[in-house]
Amino acid sequence: xxxxxxxxxxxxxxxxxxxxxxxxxxxxxxxxxxxxxxxxxxxxxxxxxxxxxxxxxxxxxxxxxxxxxxxxxxxxxxxxxxxxxxxxxxxxxxxxxxxxxxxxxxxxxxxxxxxxxxxxxxxxxxxxxxxxxxxxxxxxxxxxxxxxxxxxxxxxxxxxxxxxxxxxxxxxxxxxxxxxxxxxxxxxxxxxxxxxxxxxxxxxxxxxxxxxxxxxxxxxxxxxxxxxxxxxxxxxxxxxxxxxxxxxxxxxxxxxxxxxxxxxxxxxxxxxxxxxxxxxxxxxxxxxxxxxxxxxxxxxxxxxxxxxxxxxxxxxxxxxxxxxxxxxxxxxxxxxxxxxxxxxxxxxxxxxxxxxxxxxxxxxxxxxxxxxxxxxxxxxxxxxxxxxxxxxxxxxxxxxx
Length: 401
What we know:
- Residues 11-66 form the HTH cro/C1-type domain.
- The protein has helices spanning 7-17, 22-29, 33-41, 48-57, 64-67, 84-91, 105-121, 125-146, 149-170, 176-193, 196-212, 216-234, 239-257, 264-278, 292-305, 309-317, 327-343, 347-360, 362-366, 369-381, 384-396.
- The chain is mainly alpha-helical and 401 residues long.
- It starts with 6 loop residues before the first helix and ends in a 5-residue tail after the last helix.
- 49% of the residues are buried.
């Protein structure tokens, strides 16, 4: 085990050296005191966006002083899924010649929706979606190349959706360059389609990667632009416009929460208002899973990211996980509950909830950065009574023990 101090320990040492309380550092950075506390204790990761706020307050110019020489900042440091090889080949095939009749936009839309349903309903969503993606990318690229006029524009919007699915697949176990490639190609396809809804969707997906790479302010700017495209069309348009507007607010809420910004709740309330006002009570987005239960899922996520396990518990109390309209999101919800338990130092509850997540969706846990962070720490810190169970779960999830 390395003797290097953790990023949280480095923050605490630098804060004490400057004679700052946690409350004072919180005021200087815009983060909450509880966020500072959980970063220092190692129960919350020091994200790049948080480090960029903490660094100046501690007179740190080089973020290496916070992370240390042994920490590598990357989107692709987690275990790789074996299907990445074939998806990478499909993304870099650059088909020069297409022959034969292209699939109609209606047929292609059905294929794209079916692939998204697989992502949301399969326990092994990465394995099954990874098997579908190469063929689906070829179908969509063929349609774009061979169609003309409106059929081509519709095909471009569907190609953007296919790239979005590839981004979801690659997010935690693909090459960083591949993730950015899917973002860029999806945006180019949406812009070429000249479809405001497709452009807004592409911005939503880009915002997640911007946030993950420490560009949260830029992500929020782009999300505001996307809402400007969508909001005027909600009143008279089909429900997909309201679905997109709600999802843009939820993405802004999550982006703010991960920067410790309490205004995340205002964004969440805006999303809730859209869902309750403009969508049927039983509405579930095919690709986004926007719905009333998903609002509650996000509320738990926001509370955890804001370092408030008590609020997370309150928000989770009335949410039956069986109502979450996505196996993948249900697995992630249990991971969020595990994060909340971990913030409170409840090792047994944390292990139990990670086990529930694995039972729902093994691949969601295996490729979840928060789950890996928790398990890595529990392997060395868990009480003796549960250590063997922690080691077993960590081994199944690809965590070195």
